[in-house]
Specification:
This protein has 8 helices and no strands. By secondary structure, the protein is mainly α.
């Protein structure tokens, strides 16, 4: 795909991508950055975009996934900052418990990858994104009762996998 074709077919979806991301995080600057990152990824894969049948939906999905990645990264960064700021200067970090906690989080993330897509998305928004059920309903468009069911089933499955 040439640069001109990319400009005429993909760039018109920028506003829709921005609206979808802004609905998820309610921050204009972060939304613009996330959509820009999404556009960069779309540009890098521009040659495979010609086979996409619904380009608008594809672009919006790419932006939403980039936003979820941003939320996960921000949540991880915030938890590291919280841990570091809660330590007193003379306290030492218990390396064993910190390593164990990281291992548990790593296992949980691997287990999340085995869940169905909707369940995985809802679980990540809840656990790593720090979103309430109402926020998840707004972000995903899934009904409140379905969000609660997906969370319940996802937690149960994670517990089962984690106990093995």
């Amino acid at each position: 795909m040439t640069a001109n074709k990319f400009k005429s077919t993909v760039l018109p979806h920028y506003a829709a991508m921005y609206r979808a991301v802004y609905a998820m995080i309610h921050c204009a600057d972060d939304s613009a950055d996330i959509v820009q990152d999404s556009m960069m990824k779309l540009w890098q894969m521009r040659n495979s975009l010609e086979s996409v049948t619904n380009l608008e939906a594809y672009c919006i999905t790419a932006a939403r996934r980039q936003c979820l990645s941003h939320l996960r990264a921000r949540k991880a960064h915030d938890s590291i900052d919280d841990t570091a700021s809660s330590l007193k200067p003379d306290e030492t970090i218990d390396v064993a418990s910190d390593t164990e906690r990281r291992d548990q989080i790593e296992y949980i993330e691997r287990f999340l990858d085995t869940l169905p897509e909707q369940q995985r998305t809802v679980m990540r928004l809840s656990a790593f994104g720090g979103c309430s059920n109402d926020e998840i309903v707004q972000l995903t468009g899934i009904s409140d009762s379905n969000v609660r069911t997906l969370l319940s089933r996802g937690r149960r499955k994670i517990r089962q996998l984690f106990s093995k």
